[in-house]
Each structure stands twice: as structure tokens, then as C-alpha cells.
Amino acid sequence: MTDTNAITQAVQNLYNVYPFPPEPLTDGAPPGYNWRWCVPAAHHFALGWVPHAWGELNILDAGCGTGVGTDYLAHLNPTAQVTGIDLSPAALGIAQERVARSGVAHRVTLQQLSLTDVPQLSQQYQYINCVGVLHHLPDPKAGLRALAGVLAPGGLMHIFVYALWGRWEIRRMQKAIACLQPPGDYPAGVAMGRRLFAHLPADNRLVRRERERWALDNIQDATFADMYVHPQEIDYTVQTLFELIADSGLAFLGFSNPRYWRLERLLAPLPELLQTAQGLPQQQQYELMEALDPELSHFELFLGRQPLAHFDGSEATLVQQATPVRSPCLMGWPGRSLLDYDYQAVDLTPVEQELLARCEGDLRVNEVLAQVPSATLEQVQDLQKRQLIWLKR
Ligand SMILES: C[S@@+](CC[C@H](N)C(=O)[O-])C[C@H]1O[C@@H](n2cnc3c(N)ncnc32)[C@H](O)[C@@H]1O
């Protein structure tokens, strides 16, 4: 067996013993909302517009695990066909039961397949979700290249990979467990890790970090195992992340947690430095944030395959011709106080409320403005920037 095969086998074994994520199965649609799994919301966020009609929508959930994301992808995209692939038969079995109980099994196909073998699916996908998987491959670059090869032109991909610096304590504990407990017996590794955490000094840095940041997530052994006894993990810095992206030939379309990356989050009290930072090339701005915030433990981002049409919403005549539609990701509408797509509180002005009420998808922006004479084009553009409305073109 080659090293690559041995790694893949070990990863498969881990997820057969501890299928991930260990979310309970429920009947009916999954609770809550994650806009990253709603293809029009992701498209609008990444490119600034949505098409009038989607046509065929094929979605791939690459490394779907027990199907939590797959289930949301099917429910939030009610016309889509969703394919989930994974190495682990145990995880796939749970995923199958999940989508059956939630009522979307007829639009979901689950298959045991390695991510690097996706060309075997003989299908192109308009959207690929690959969360928490690439960093467990022996060769993540090969994995991302394979996914890029089945992404349709103009298609989008959402990926999540681990970041190096915020996982420092995790990596130390992984090492300690591996020293004390021969790898491969995952339940024994979990028991060893729990024992160490229980008996190391309370002020030990690894113990403190586990208690303050991860313990709630790690109540279940499956999550603990995923974190501390994983046989394969490659962590990224901003620099190596951008090398991974460049190798794939895909375009970087932005982090899907943009508030985290706002320079103002850390530099607002230092306006001169903020201005200097804002003048840096984009990747260097991210490297600065990475340097200043050692909590960074993952990257989540959108990629796209050319040709990609960006619409920044600043061109007045183009905006006037677009059709505004209220984002379906708003909680609390109709009303003045909402939660936006990212669960952030929004207080609408009366004019904004009136504008939103008219964004039903049957009028163009100039027609909406004619109906709300007190509103301006700038207010429409602002609503679009805040993802409260989408522009269809
Ligand atoms: C941490 S879990 C993530 C599951 C799911 N994407 C989520 O976010 O909840 C990683 C999953 O990737 C799968 N996986 C790892 N390497 C893989 C590969 N080469 N091909 C397909 N699946 C793989 C594992 O079996 C596991 O189910």
C-alpha cells in the first residue's frame, strides 16, 4: 500500500468509527438557516447578482459526512439535484437516513467515492460544497484540482480548511496523544486525550484553550476524535491557502465570513494604520489580520470557475434595469427589526421598509423607485450591498 492509500484508509477508518458530524436525525426540514448552502444567496454574495432563472442546478457535496450540509443544500435549493460523496460507508448510511427522514431523498444521490475520483461522476456541477475535507487529504492540491475539473463554467465552490495558528494547542495535544497511544485505535486515542485534559494542571495552556474554546463542541466523542486523534491534517496560512487556490486555476471570490476579515475589527482605534493597511494588496491585508489575530482557526471562502460575471452594483443605469428581489434569508420580515442573512440585527428606516416591501421580483429598480418617490437609487444600492435585496439580471 502506498502512503497515500494508507492515509486515505486511516481517514476512512476514523470516520467509520466516528461518523461526522454527530448531529441527531430529525424528521422534516433542518432547523435554522445557513446562507452558504443557498446557491442564489452564495451567488449574490460572491458576484453581486442572481440570474432570472437557474436552469439545471446540480450540486455536489464533496465529503458530505453524515449529510447535515447535504440536507440543507437540498432544502434551501428546492429545484436542485444534490450528490453527496464520502469515503465512509458508516457516514453515508446516516446521511441516507437523514435525507429520507427530512423528505428530500428523491433529489439526493449518495455515493461512496473519493474526492479525487470525482471525474468518474461524469457530471458538471453549478455549485460544490467542500467543508472540512480538503485538509484531510494526502494531497489537498490534487483534491481541489479534481473538484475544479467538475465545476461548471461560471460555477461556484464553497470550501472550508483549517488555519494553522489558531490550532496550535490542538496540534500539540494531537502530538501528545500520538506519543502515548499508538495511532489507529481511535477510541483509545479519545480516552487518552480526555484523561490528559482531566489531569494536566488547570492552568496548562492546552487545557485552558480546550476549556475556553472547544470543550462545548467536544462533548461528543466524534467531535473530540475529529479534533485530537485525526490521522491526517494539513493546516493553512493565508500564503499557503492562496497557493492552493492558484494551483486549482479557480478564482478567489472572498471569504464567506467577511466580518472576521474587516481591518476595522482590529485597527479602528488606529485610523492612520488602518489607512495604511487599506492600501496594502488584498492578500497582504489578510496576512496582516492573520498576524494580529492568533485565534484564526479556519478559512471559509468562495471560489469560482471562469467565466465569472461580477456586478458591483455601482453602475446606475445597470442597477436601474435590474430586478430587485427581497432576500429570502431575512428573519423577521415583514417588520422593521430583522436579522440579516448572517444573523446580524438590522433596523430598517421607514423608506427602506417600503422599498423592501416592493422588491417582490416583478418590478425593475426604476419601477420600484417610481412607486417610492422618497427613495433614492443610492438606498437601493445600499440594500443590495447589505444583501437585504438581490439584484436579478
Ligand atoms: C470533518 S468531516 C466533514 C463532513 C461534512 N462535510 C461537514 O462539514 O459536516 C470530513 C469528511 O470527509 C470525508 N473524506 C475525507 N477524505 C475524503 C476523500 N478523499 N474523499 C471523500 N471524502 C473524504 C470523511 O470521510 C468525512 O466524512
UniProtKB/TrEMBL annotation:
Keywords: Membrane, Methyltransferase, Transferase, Transmembrane, Transmembrane helix
The keyword Transmembrane helix appears for this protein: yes
Methyltransferase type domain: residues covered: 60-156
Pfam family, any one: Methyltransf_12
Alphabetical list of InterPro entries matching this protein: Methyltransf_12 (IPR013217), SAM-dependent_MTases_sf (IPR029063)
Molecular-function GO terms, alphabetical: methyltransferase activity
Signal peptide range: none
Keyword Transmembrane: yes
One GO term of the biological process aspect: methylation
TM annotation in the entry: 146-165
Protein name: SAM-dependent methyltransferase
Organism: Gloeomargarita lithophora Alchichica-D10
